[in-house]
Amino acid sequence: MDQTQEKRHRIKLLAVDMDGTCLDGRSRMSRETVEALREAARAGITVVPTTGRNLHCLPHRLAGERDIYRYVISSNGAVVTDCRTGKDLFRSMIPKETALGLLRDCRRTGAGITAHLHHEYLIQGRLLVLLGRLIYGKDARGVYRVKSMERTIARSRYGVEEIQFYFLRPGVRERLEKLLKRTRGLTWASTSIYVEVFSEKTSKGMALAALAERLGIKKEETACIGDGENDLPMFRAAGLKMAMGNAVPELREKADIILPSNGRGGAAKGIRLCLPR
């Protein structure tokens, strides 16, 4: 038995990314993937959906499947929630004053603004509400429109999980990145259409390590599956690392196993590789 096979047979905790991993290019989760997750849970593996989404925008195919999972890592690791008790076990928030200062500085950039606050996806303005419904579809249970993100956050008693700025006009990205470089205590990741901003102490890896420690599970008993740059910290926290065939090159380079793509059942295959033999 080689080293990778040996790792596979002692997995107790499995962290699985959602978009680009369990979900295909049209944000659909197949019946095969759901059944593979159920098989892992029945085998005694603690299955943890691990996502950049907020908790209330978890894929609807999983929302009613509480026999599959108990814990969720959401907002790129800002929160770990025990869905059985409704309690957050771990939080890594953007301080309110930091969030408000950033929003004030970004008023004239022309960016669209969304945020994750207390498990909800808040959107400033009607245009982005339509975009949010388009992106999340049936998963948009936790999407709400606000008139002013600054006022909403200022009045809230909850910490800010994440802020996203959308590049709605030319030059917005460049102006935002200049502002972000001057703001302390934050980290960010960009796509072609938006930048997501969170605390410098936030990552899927930090959240996964915190949950594993709480459950008394060792690193070598932890596995993960992912596809994006935000999954790299999760790879550092896991003993067995699986990358999707559609994953970014940096993730594939660090993977123990490279699976088929998200359009070819790769997640289901990876999940079943962790089942005890």
TrEMBL record:
Pfam families: Hydrolase_3. This is HAD family phosphatase. It comes from Claveliimonas monacensis.
